[in-house]
Amino acid sequence: MATTTKIQPRALVRASGGPRYAVALAVDALGTGLLRPFLLLYGVTVLRLSASATGIAMTIGVVVGLACMPAVGRWLDRGARSTVVAASMLVRVLGVALLMATPAGHVWPFAAAALFLGIGNQAWPAAHAALVATVSHGRERDAALAGGRALRNAGLGVGALLATACLAGGASALQALAAVTGLAYLAAAALAWSVHLHADPAAAPSRDGADGPAPRMLALLAANVIYAFCLNVTEIALPLILVTQLHASPVWSAAVFVANTVLVVTLQVPLTVLLSRFSRRTVLALAGVLLAASYLGFLAATSLGHVWGAPAVAVVSVASTIGEIIYAGTATALVTAIAPAHVLGRALARFQLSTGFGLAVSPAVTTGLAAHGSAALWGSLSAATLLSASAVATNKDRATRLSGFRRRARAGS
Hints:
With about 425 residues, this protein is an all-alpha fold. The chain has helices spanning about 10-15, 20-35, 40-45, 50-65, 70-75, 80-100, 105-135, 140-165, 170-195, 220-225, 230-245, 250-275, 280-300, 305-340, 345-370, 375-395, 400-410.
């Protein structure tokens, strides 16, 4: 069993990349929160595009943006760190500029803007994880990754609240929000680049003992596609069920979303640290079991009808959020632990591909299953997540096994 890491705020900031990098993360998240939740609304309100055309353009942007990940992985494996993070932010500056330059009624410039925004959004998680893995190690790295997620969710939440308050201004307010978002991305990129962090993967093998070939991680990547669905439950599945099946007030959806954000911000680091006494693979499997149980809880809640259904969904959403927190605090940390330093970038890029794919297909899968009833939706999600948790718990990556064999052989010689 691993030794439990203690929370020391200054050490946590240092392990996360330092004060300037923390400010860059906060500014970037604030800017993202100002625009990303309202990008569809921008296309419909400001550019006068149809909702379907706007949605298709945004989906294409996300999916095509995933194609950049192999190049990002190779760039990281050449030692780049803060430069890649800054580049992911600068690409989004270009996306915002294209968005603001798009004439009303023109969908292709909007699609190009969505593509550049998608590239930046897909590249950032892998680049950020590689940077944190360079300045911290072991369980301290897990806590630092969790701290980064908590900070990012706080910035996203504050940005979304500010944007919501400004929406009464109509199309002009959305254009102003886009401009502020572009400036925030630019400032964040400058701060991230100023960290000047570069790695020498060949000279710094993993401190977790994985010094062999790149792990294939097939079981982990396949399971992660299903796990990633939990990140969209609060934004897609629950509002769909609450509004269309339980005929509840939209206030319930908003309350669940706010509660999710608050729980992630307050519990992400403490829960990650608390569970650091167990192996990462065990904790990730536990997250899957908890998520699967919460999906069955949603199924039971929807059977209670209009009066009690909505409150029951809100209660179960707490368990779902805790499962999400455990998953998010463990999955990326597991990849950084099992991947040798010289292929860390490619391993993180493959992991982000699986996450991005899961997030991209989850709206279509969720709405498709929901059309066949609550049992089809929550039963399928629960079964798939339990299967994924089993795969995570029982499968070991070939590179990890070989590394263990080599360590035992050296110990016995």
